[in-house]
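Issue 218. Parser rejects a valid record. Input:
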Amino acid sequence: MERKRIFAISGVKNSGKTTLICRLLEIFKDKGLKVAVLKHDGHDFVPDVPGTDTYCQLQSGAYGTAVFSAGKYMLVKQQPQISEKELAEFFPEADLILLEGFKYSTYPKIEIIRKGNSAESVCNPKKLMAIATNLDAEERDALSVLENVPFFELDNAECIAEFILSDYFR
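Output the parser choked on:
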């Protein structure tokens, strides 16, 4: 089986990961790529909303529910643990799997460092491919990150997308 292409967009809470990922998704879609996103939630998210049938079923003790229509489906299964690698297998058609978060992982990643939100790199330096930031040149120079890690302007999603594609899809 072909190795899944997995790339993380990492950073501290409220650094702009979701915003950047949404911009990247638009760019990748325009290029004809199928991209899935996986996000880990350390707060045991509520997968449904009160008032829906599946919410009621889960609250009543179902260990899993599924709802589907002609064009999509949603599956909720309660189990102790599943890895991002296992979840990626749910998307066999994907050209790329983006991970939101995973700053301590060894996946290739771009870290977001945003002025007023984070002042230094917090990611595992292994496979830190680039930094996306809005820091000025002096602030960038003060960062203690690996040498040869390129910087990208945080608002330049097109450039970041090209970097991911050129670096990762060689």
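Fixed in the parser; the record now loads. The helical segments are 17-30, 53-59, 84-88, 137-142, 157-168.
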